[in-house]
Amino acid sequence: MENKDTKEKLLREFAPQLEKTSSVTLVWILFLLGVIGWGVYAFVAQVTKGHIVTGMRDNVVWGIYIVNFIFFMGMSYSGAIISGTLQLFRTEWRKPIIRMAEYLAIISLLIGPGYILLCIGRLDRLYYLALFGRIQSPITWDVIAISTDIFGCLIFLYLSILRDIASLRDFSELKIPAWRKKVYSVLALGYTGTPEQEKRLRRATDIMATMVIAIAIIVYSVLAWIFSVTLQPGWHSTIFGPYFVIAAVYSGTGVLIIAMWVFRKVYRLDQYITRKHFVAMGVLMVVLAALFGYFTFSDYLTKWYGSEKNDESLIRILFTEYYWPFIFSNYIGVLIPLLVVGIPKLRTITNITLSALVVIVALWFNRYLIVIPTLESPYLPIQDSRPEWTNYSGTWVEFALMAAGVALFCLLFTLASKFVPVMNVSEMSEGPKAEPSELFKAEESLL
Amino acid sequence: MRTQDKFRIIFSFLLCLCNLVPSAQNKKDSVTGITPAITFSYLNSNDTIILTANIFDKKETGVFAIKNAVIEFSASGDNETRNLGQAKADEEGNAIIKLPVASGLPQDKDGKTTYFAKFSGKGKYQPAMGTFSAKFARITVNFSKEDSLSFILVTATQIDHKGVVNPIQKEKVVVYVPRLFNLLKIGEIDLDMAGTGKVEYPGRLVGDSLGNIMVIARIEENDTYGNVQGQSSISWGIPKQYYLAEKPTRELWTPIAPIWMIVTLIIMLTGVWAHYIYAVIQLVKIKQISKRKPE
User: Fold this and answer.
1) Cross-chain residue pair A136–B249, CB shorter than 8 Å
2) Which end of chain B is least crowded, N or C, by CB within 10 Å?
3) Across residues A266-278, what is the average pLDDT?
């Protein structure tokens, strides 16, 4: 049960975040808008001049856009899996960080698919996908999966913030404009925390938590299958589905740690987000690092030992032209978190955050190395292929749109934290022993 | 002078030298112009002569095709030089001209025709020329069956300036069949004194839907005849069976997805959306509960 006094105390503490926007935050928002504007300018250049302004050509038809798509989608699925799991298992330390994982899930999911649209040469024919879409095509699977996932994550987020919205509606000390009060009032659906309302809300939240975990795994596997069902060297792999899921959760854990660090600093949440939370997330990151390292090694070892002509050519390219990105993404990106979290003396908040940063960059390069070198060593020769078509390097347009995506991600995160507190106030005001999940209750009754 | 200053002077000198060398080279280019190179190839295929002149600029950094360069082709014999026409080089620097043999070309007393590809120069590019001499020859391809074996018969002849047909003796002919990306070599023939030779047809080669297969016989890069090609078609190939899916699969032309895929998709989407609807119903009920009057 919620403790009313604790909740009011927490709301009082979080109220300034919702009421005021400091000049620093304002500058930050303007900076992000500037970067987004740069992206819009690049987008206009791409639309007016065509894809020739990008580095993509006949051989390398996918570039930074698809890398960013995989990266953002990975973060989203990671947010969904982490928040869903923490919700289901009623993990005590989840309370201050679960909201960030939920935001991560939905915000990344809104940005990621945008990069696919940037890859499409004829955007004016996009609706053909709905009119003439074929279920046999993995691209159609992805469209269905992502749209289903967006709905699922939105419902899950709404269920998760409903109690806080109701609390904000009822919190009389909150000095916000009347229209915002009205918005809270409409969105709260008349929730007052009666036992029946609470029971229904918990049941719906638990079911959606289960759903978002399942959907995240399926949807990211579908994304992996888009690559692995082809015969391209480096992509045609049976372990790509689980490999992508593990890589996604791994990178998302890194982003979540960074988000925890940023909000802890900006909103001075030191007493809520403590070293304990960073270590818990760090341990999760270590487990995922080990799994990611295992999958990576397994994938490349079998390719190398098989000595298939095209696989050999790909591995040669990875160890020559892409030597440092390959070492960074697959060695340093795995070893750093293992060392930082594994050695107790190094296990500080700053070190865990820095290792999370390394993980994020390493995982971005991992996706780059999955996409680009394979396309640079095509399985089938293309007639009239020119050297400049078989080598890819991103252009300013692609980097501008990449920066715009990151800026939009930060902007939406910032705005979301101004609408509902970044921590789950209602759950934090509950006692340490929360109600067990509906699923576990059912299990207990069966036993 | 301090050692550090000495190093600074030497370093500056080397830096200037590095800057000067390429600029001197550029200056030289702009004053004297660039002399392009022309490589000339000749193919006599089924009584059509195909002349290809490739024009390019060879630099230290690589070979660069000179596109849109106009190449004038001509042929000469002992008594006559005839203009054959002109062609513009494409993106790869190839200017191609095709001549029917019936047009009759000037020859010298040995029956050889000398071909010229001439570039008159344009802008920074200096004039350039390529030449090639070849005797006109002809290859005919025929087929025969002896017992259970199939043979490809090749006859190669040359025509002198008086129009007398003579056999091409002791030359090598390579036999190919065209495949998707390239020519597949199926045998080699050493011509006898009558200018003929044969090679066994290997069988098990896929032709078109009717089993027709093209056989090409070539004398390649010969000093006297250049490249000479003859070709003929025969229905010895295995008829190509265009794959028609018995059941709908993943091909682009199938109108409907496999049943297992449709069933899986329906089950998954129904399962997921049923849970979504259940969650939304719970939200509706939460709203309804709030409207109830307290008892």
Assistant:
1) yes
2) C
3) 87
| Residue A447's pLDDT band (cuts 50, 70, 90) | very low
CATH assignment at residue A374: 1.20.1630.10
Domain membership of residue B21 (yes or no) is: no
- Whether B31 is covered by a domain: the verdict is no
- Whole-number pLDDT of residue B25: 47
CA distance A85 to chain B (A): 17
- Which of B204, B234, B264 is where one domain is finished? B234
- A127 lies in a domain? yes
Per-residue pLDDT at B20: 44
The model carries a pTM of: 0.67
Amino acid (one-letter) located at A52: I
**ipTM value:** 0.84
Distance from the Cα of B280 to chain A's closest Cα (Å) equals 8
Give burial (CB, 10 Å; 0-12/13-18/19+) of A186: exposed
Q: Is residue B267 included in any domain, yes or no?
A: no
Quickly tell me which residue has 């289903």 as its tokens.
A148
Question: For chain B, what percent of residues have pLDDT higher than 90?
Answer: 37
- pLDDT per position as a tens digit, A12-31: 888 888 888 889 999 999 99
Q: Are B162 and B177 in contact (CB under 8 A)?
A: no
Question: Of A136, A155, A215, which is closest to B261 when you measure between CB atoms?
Answer: A136
Buried (b) or exposed (e) across B152-190, using 16+ Cβ within 10 A? bbbbbbbbebeeeeebbeebebbbbbeeeeeeeebbebe
Q: Which residues of B touch A203 (CB under 8 A)?
A: 282
Non-local CB neighbours of B280 within 8 Å, separated by 6+ positions: A155
Per DSSP, the three-state class of B140 is: strand
Are residue B145 and residue B200 in the same domain, yes or no? yes
Q: What is the rounded distance in angstroms from the CA atom of residue A302 to the CA atom of residue B89?
A: 48
- In a domain? residue A357: yes
Name which of A137, A200, A215 is nearest B286 (Cβ-Cβ).
A200
> In this complex, which of B262, B276, B287 lies closest to A189 when CB atoms are compared?
B287
Q: What is the CATH number of the domain that holds B184?
A: 2.60.40.730
Interface test with B, best of A128, A134, A139, A215 (most B CBs within 10 A): A134
Domain count, chain A: 1
| Containing structural domain, residue B119 | 37-135
